[in-house]
User: What shape does this take?
Amino acid sequence: MSLVTYALVTLDNAKDFLGITGSSKDTLLEMLINQATEYIEKYCNRRFAETTYTEQTYDGTKSKELQLKQFPIITFTLLQVNNSVDNTDNWDDVEADDYWVEDDTSIITKTTMFVTGKQNYRATYTAGYANIPYDLQLACLTLVSQALNKRKAGGVKSESLGDHSITFEDSLQRDGVLKSILANYRSIWI
Assistant: This one.
């Protein structure tokens, strides 16, 4: 197994965080990093690594604003509208002077209304982070660590031996620190 190209951390980051040397657990760690990345991205409803989106379609909103699916915007290349009345491809470029893009929020604001329609606009742009923010890396590493520890303990719910006790929560979603980190990055649609 290898890391997905959009992984939130590197194998070396995870090994350093977990204090693991050698390569005997590399395949397992790569799987856990990929799973943690997928979990975080699904929870936040967005991709974090810098990615180019080509001709991503959107519904016209009959307002002056349209929100792109990914953010922050690194470069915005093209906005097009389908002017067809019979569902054929008839894409025309929207003049750059007719709209502006807020990079942090990924909201496109037009000088006129976006025409109402189903997938009648499309955008080409690059969004995400060239360098994943440290708190997102920490969230990913924490999930990897929890999954690895849960695996080692065989999914132990609780264990006591004298004054020593161990308890694993049923769900990673119950971790308050992770939830507060990820809440800062969740995609909220307007």
In short: Residues 165-172 have pLDDT under 50 and may be disordered. The chain has two domains: 11-47+132-157+168-183, 51-127.
